[in-house]
Amino acid sequence: MQEKLEQIRRAIGEGIGDTGSRKELFELKMKYLGKTGEISALSKGMRDVPAEERPAMGKLVSDVRAWAEAQFAAREEELKKEELKARYESEKVDVTMPARFTETGTRHPVNIVKKEIIECFEGMGFEIYEGPEIEKDYYNFQALNIPADHPARDMQDTFFITGEYLLRSQTSSGQIRVMEKKKPPIKILSPGRVYRSDSDATHSPMFHQMEGLVVDRGITLCDLKGILDEFARRLFTSETKTRLRPSYFPFTEPSVEVDLSCHNCGGRGCRICKGTGWIEILGAGVVNRRVLENCGIDPDEYTGFAFGMGLERIAMIKYGINDMRYLFENDVRLLKQFRD
Ligand code: PHE
Coil, strand or helix: which one is 200? Predict the structure, then answer.
């Protein structure tokens, strides 16, 4: 029996060194220490050992068992560490490696200006309304006090789809749509695409406008001036001033053309303002009482003002772009300059 024990001890010593995984180690352990394992078989075999030798033999067996258990536990620890190390190795991340480059787009200058204007007016309590681009003659012209034979139609060379439908030539059509649905107080800002048969360095057949409309009791041209002053300071510089000049639009009375003091020279006169110190920026006026009537709003009770501006024009002024066509060519050399 002693010999057998010695043999087991050697076999375990060698076998353990050869195990490469915890699974293999477990199988080996079962072979010796499991219920039907070899060491357990020896314990059972004690019955056949003569009584006087039993205590000594029993001690030998239990010594080997204790030794074997310690050996397996030690190897188990070793293997655990090795497996962890292998896992760390395989999951290793090199934090100094350069990141994969993802090309991101940039906001288009017209959209930058649009966003800034919206934020400015939202801050003053305006709601956003977006109307349809395919519009009825009624909303684009008639309800805005421009009847079919009116010479003011010549101001905007319009793309007609049918006799009744057209591509809207101004976001002013949105004024009517809003006033038909909503009664005062009204305070809306309406951005959108508009279309005119016109194309050169300062005109494009499709461009963007931003319309503003305020209708309530006691609204005057002074309110318009105050709001536009705030807008001019926010969009350009805190020094920017506005100037109103008389003008004509069928849907406003009186009508004005609004200039900003030149943000480049501060009004002294430069290339950008063509030496005048002022830059024309939008059309506006007090809403014509006929327009209010057309929308079922009593002009003796309510008054309002409206304004409309071209976003391309504002982007050109703000960023010193001298040809509108650059804004539609999508040349990345231009667009990249607007990465924010
Ligand atoms: N719709 C006018 C245009 O496109 C601008 C405007 C809007 C004028 C609102 C007055 C009031 O020229």
Answer: strand
Which atom of ligand 1 lies nearest, measured to the CA of 310? 4
Query: Which tokens in the block code for residue 215?
Result: 């209708």
Residues within a 6 A CB radius of ligand 1: 170, 172, 211, 249, 252, 283-285, 306-308
Edge-to-edge strand ranges of the sheet holding 242-249:
127-128, 186-195, 206-216, 303-310, 278-287, 252-261, 242-249
At residue 340 the predicted structure's pLDDT band, cuts being 50, 70 and 90, is low
pLDDT in tens, 197-250: 988 888 899 999 999 999 999 999 999 999 999 999 999 999 999 999 999 999
Partners of 200 in the β-ladder: 203
Q: What is the identity of the amino acid at 49?
A: V
Residue with the nearest Cα to atom 12 of ligand 1?
283
Query: Which of 249, 280, 291, 307 to mutate to test ligand 1, by most ligand atoms within 8 A of the CB atom?
Result: 249
Q: How far is the CA of 235 from the centre of ligand 1 (A)?
A: 20
Tell me whether strands 127-128 and 186-195 are parallel, antiparallel or unpaired.
parallel
Q: How far is CA 224 from CA 74, 212, 242, 286, in A?
A: 87, 10, 11, 8
Name the percent of the chain lying above pLDDT 70: 100
| AA identity, residue 81 | K
pTM for the model stands at 0.72
pLDDT of residue 308: 98
Nearest CA residue ID for atom 4, ligand 1: 170
Burial call 95-117: b when 16+ CB within 10 Å, e when fewer: eeeeeeeeeeeeebbbebbbeeb
Of the chain, the end-to-end C-alpha distance in Å amounts to: 85
Overall average pLDDT of the 74-100 stretch: 90
The preferred substitution site among 144, 172, 206 for testing ligand 1, maximizing ligand atoms within 8 Å of CB, is 172
